[in-house]
């Protein structure tokens, strides 16, 4: 039995029964609803021209997030609300304050990217409702990190972000949206069939385990930030899909026995914010530079780990901290050290019918010195050339344990076992550092590609280890600014 996709859009509940399970939200609003304000620029979640806002019922409230509609599949909208730039028109026909601010500040040039900027700003506008203090530049930059302007008009757009809060307020009927969402919530697993494909959206961990056992070859879909590109760029036929975005148990975070267990369905933005409470200084910059806000809103930490990309930015620091991956199947639970989960390029230790349930991250312990660094061609929203993570435990000035992991240096995110051995049991001084840096040449044989040469990767990997020493040694560490210049120039 197949049920229609039901969601709230343009002030009414939409019911769709004839769309492909991999039709994107962008394609639907443009081709089916003829709402052409939302644009396609890249079809891979990079440029932000397609930005929309998704509303979801959470703890009795409506949670609103900006996402990239070009890589989100339409069935994932079931039970949610969709807002596009057409929804900002005011009842009296006037512009919304976000749009008016863009006009006043000359924030639109060619105009192609403007609807995406407007929707990112609208999400920020709603988020700051009720507060008195003005938006900070950092908040604005983070909100716009997923929007690219090819006319280089960022300054007036940032001016518009500040101006929008000064204009007369525009209301948003949260109660109407909340009531619509409550009426759309399902009590049973959503199953949608079309064109020989089936889209399963289980509600519980038990249902997910059962449907996964019955369909071990189905594609597991979470945030669609990678799987979406399989369709839009590689034109792949995904076959059956199991969507985990409605499984309540996978959206939980628990703290127990000195570890934080993060469910596979917890969004990256939420996961990183939680982890930054324990590792603020060490993870804050990486959190900001990890993709864009719309990608972090949609993607999940569990999905990032399960994807296993050699240039994924989560795996190196998770491995350095000694994180474990929790796997589940009908046979029960299985826990692996994260570094053992990756067997080779795009190869994971997953048994038939098994899926990632959670990621378990150790919390800080006495004597821990931990840092993570990302090198890329631009600051925001860029794939790493090298991502490095270091974690040592010191007793006095002696290294009791060492864990080093790099992304971009091998076919998987990989530990530097020889460099670790050169550190363990020795004093944390420059001689020890130099010995460990030399051993990195035996741990890795990095490749040359469009992002960096092999020689660059090796040199910067060694320099980042030196930066770590400069920041964490006991005797008069340099300022962060001086370390940046010295270690990575």
Overall description:
- The protein has 489 residues and is an alpha+beta fold.
- It folds into three domains: 5-87 and 174-243, Ubiquitin-like (UB roll) (Roll), CATH 3.10.20; 91-163, Orthogonal Bundle (DNA polymerase, domain 1), CATH 1.10.150.120; 252-489, Enolase-like, domain 1 (2-Layer Sandwich).
- The chain has helices spanning 25-32, 97-104, 114-127, 137-143, 154-163, 174-184, 205-214, 227-232, 268-276, 280-289, 293-298, 301-307, 314-321, 338-341, 417-423, 430-443, 454-472, 480-488, and strands at residues 5-9, 12-16, 51-58, 61-68, 81-83, 190-194, 197-201, 219-221, 241-243, 253-256, 259-263, 324-329, 332-337, 342-344, 347-348, 355-362, 368-375, 386-395, 398-407, 414-415.
- A five-stranded mixed sheet has the order 2-1-5-3-4. A five-stranded antiparallel sheet has the order 10-11-16-12-13.
- Helix 9 (268-276) runs antiparallel to helix 10.
- Mean pLDDT is 94; it is low at 479-489.
Q: Enumerate how many helices there are, as a single number.
A: 18
Radius of gyration: 23 Å
CATH superfamily of the largest domain: CO dehydrogenase flavoprotein, C-terminal domain
The N- and C-terminal alpha carbons lie at a distance of: 61 Å
State the total count of DSSP E strands: 20
List its traits.
about 500 residues, alpha+beta, Ubiquitin-like (UB roll), DNA polymerase, domain 1, Enolase-like, domain 1, 3 domains, five-stranded mixed beta sheet, five-stranded antiparallel beta sheet, 18 helices, 20 strands, disordered C terminus
